[in-house]
Amino acid sequence: MATTMKDVARQAGVDVSTVSLAINNDPRIRRETRERILSIASDLGYRKNHLARGLRSGKSFTIGAVVGYTSSAFWSEVLAGAQSVLAEHDYHLLLDYAPSELRQEETQIEALKQKRVDGFLIAPSDDDPESPDNKSAVEHYRALEEEKIPFVFVDRFVPGLDADYVAADNFSAARTATRHLLRLGHKRVAYVYAPHRMNTAQRERLQGYQSVMKEARLEPIPWEALRPRNERSLEGLEAGRELLADKAGKGVTAILAATDSTAMGVLRALHDAEKKVPEEIALMGFGGASTAEYMHPPLSTVTLPMRALGEHAARILLDRIEGADGPPRHVLLPTQLTIRASCGAAR
Amino acid sequence: MATTMKDVARQAGVDVSTVSLAINNDPRIRRETRERILSIASDLGYRKNHLARGLRSGKSFTIGAVVGYTSSAFWSEVLAGAQSVLAEHDYHLLLDYAPSELRQEETQIEALKQKRVDGFLIAPSDDDPESPDNKSAVEHYRALEEEKIPFVFVDRFVPGLDADYVAADNFSAARTATRHLLRLGHKRVAYVYAPHRMNTAQRERLQGYQSVMKEARLEPIPWEALRPRNERSLEGLEAGRELLADKAGKGVTAILAATDSTAMGVLRALHDAEKKVPEEIALMGFGGASTAEYMHPPLSTVTLPMRALGEHAARILLDRIEGADGPPRHVLLPTQLTIRASCGAAR
DNA sequence: CTGTTAGCGCATTCAC
DNA sequence: GTGAATGCGCTAACAG
After folding, report:
1. Residue B238: its pLDDT value, please?
2. Domain A60-167+306-333 adopts which CATH fold?
């Protein structure tokens, strides 16, 4: 059996409770006593048992992370950010990649509740307009509130639910990106996005784009990238092809894409159509994928603060767990325009 | 307070122990009794407490995942694979992105031990030849063996330590890729890799390449991609440039890269040098990055079975936790050649 | 400052 | 088949 506080206590000639206090740095314990106990503990190879501590104190020092794993590089970064601040406080992430069906997400959250996580970091499922369970989603999260389990949304949130969230400022980002293209002299700027993958983040990008176009009295050219027929086909590629073939694509000299992978697909469509990028058509992505730089030409993009997203979310969560009350916090993190060759000009 | 077995027991007019047996599907409990208890439990919103169960049974139903987060998309997939099989057995992953210094990895493993994880899924740190702590690494993992905490290496392993591991068959994969290039008629085939990021996986790729070249009585042209001077520079890009400028690059008609991102960098170097791919130089990556397909031309690559890696590792771990003894298992998973335009020909 | 006393929720002996 | 008793390792009152 592993050595316990009891062993340490016996060896040190003190009570277990004293050992407990010593190990938890309680100020009531004298320095020298603590040091003696700690040294004995270390000699004996004592290791605290978080399960016992958790049972007793009602805290597990774990956070359930319920996120999608599509666009997995993105989530890796977010989780790495969260993990790094949590680790400083002895917390860990209990991972739970959730497929985008709400039903699944629910049972997985239940499983994590059984593990007694102290809080949740959640990227709510995309709200597919074809089956809008949004109402049930709201109820679902409200249950968490009633059970007083803190949670914070990351990257996107659930409209109609006033909860903590941390997201990139997608609206401003889209505005900045669009304005950048307009400043370069473009008039017909299209926006390619996937309507079947809508969530609050995506919605705000679209709105940001539209708002700038309208303010400039230009016609917005939103272009829907449909679900590709065969599983592993390239969404952006098909969308780009169709846009170029359609009359809406006539005269378009710049394209902003809702995600980097969409942009990469569009880029291939442009290559295939022998359109020069950026000379004939300027292109810009959204996300900050590391591979964007490797494109030909290197892809300009809106870089999302992925690590910071996770870090902030973790901090809010820790606060809430410590009992911080107060109104929901809505943190919007700034993004950065990463200008490379594909959009045609330095900032 | 949350409802406990005690509450359920009182409500059902039975003892807690009966409830416990019922919930754990013990055959001693009669069907109807169990069903009655279960229904009451569900009515009362009973939720089992894994901390208590863990304290009692000595199992936490969690697995520590200690992996790097560079090449994060790769690890996302691996972890998603592991998670999916673990979830079926009520296990979860406790995440721990470890930077590649061994020292760090050690303290993080210690923290996870305190959380009483039932096993570890580990991607051992790269063995930087400049500071070969390999000996201490071995000891470090042996400690786990002595403590009888099961662990399995994923993707790479520690030479000199005969432990369970699951990896892609990098040696064969590199051989297949190299042979593919030779079959296309190439004689001077270079291999670009990063010596400062060596690990067993990388080493086997290099050896696979070399073995085929030697068998074909061709001169291997290994080319080292050095650590780029500025942090965020492109390793493969610089390496590609240097290779083209060097006399070793003379007459090279095909390049195999050790990773996809290296290949992407090389691709840019080729573009910059106005070399046509694949007409003048054929190119092939390694990894199966999702964005490889978006390259121009689409990048041929060796696709690694990322999800399967995680799935197998999880299964082995579960077996070991269940007490499976027996010699270390070394699982080598097959890879797939994904032929696209950059290498010049369909298979 | 340190020891005493009591559980946290559950699983596992044993009886019956 | 089911109930009673016991303790996993730890923390938190409350004494002293």
Report:
1. 92
2. Rossmann fold (3.40.50)
> How far is B216 from chain A, CA to nearest CA, in Å?
33
Helix, strand, or coil (residue A104) = helix
Tell whether the model's pLDDT for residue B130 goes beyond 60: no
DSSP characters over B176-241: HHHHHHHHTT-S-EEEEE-GGG--HHHHHHHHHHHHHHHHTT---EEEE-PPPSSTTS-HHHHHHH
Q: Residues A218-264: pLDDT tens digits?
A: 999 999 998 877 666 688 999 999 999 999 999 999 999 999 999 99
The proportion of chain A whose per-residue pLDDT surpasses 70, expressed as a percent, equals: 93
Q: Where in chain A is the domain with CATH 3.40.50.2300?
A: 60-167+306-333, 170-304+337-343
Nearest CB partner across the interface for A51, out of B51, B65, B69: B51
Q: Which bases of chain C are contacted by protein, using any atom under 7 A from a CB?
A: 1-13
Whole-number Å distance, CA B38 to C1' D1?
17
Structural contact between residues B92 and B86, judged by C-beta atoms closer than 8 angstroms: yes
Residues 6+ apart with CB under 8 A from B301: B260, B263, B284, B285, B286, B287, B288, B289, B292, B338, B340
Measured between beta carbons, which residues in chain A are less than 8 angstroms from residue B75?
Answer: 76
**CATH code linked to domain B170-304+337-343:** 3.40.50.2300
CB contact under 8 A, A296 and B298: no
Annotation: CATH topology of A5-48: 434 Repressor (Amino-terminal Domain) (1.10.260)
Q: Which nucleotide is nearest to A36 (CA to C1')?
A: C2
pLDDT band at B154 (very low <50, low <70, confident <90, very high): very high
Instruction: Give span(s): CATH 1.10.260.40, chain A.
Output: 5-48
What do you get for the CA distance between the two ends of chain A, in Å?
64
> Which pLDDT does position A113 carry in this prediction?
95
Q: Which of A61, A110, A289 is closest, CB to CB, to B291?
A: A289
Name which of A51, A75, A96 is nearest B60 (Cβ-Cβ): A51
- Chain A CB contacts of B293 below 8 Å: 234
Confidence of residue B132 (pLDDT cuts 50, 70, 90): low
Query: What pLDDT score does A245 carry?
Result: 95
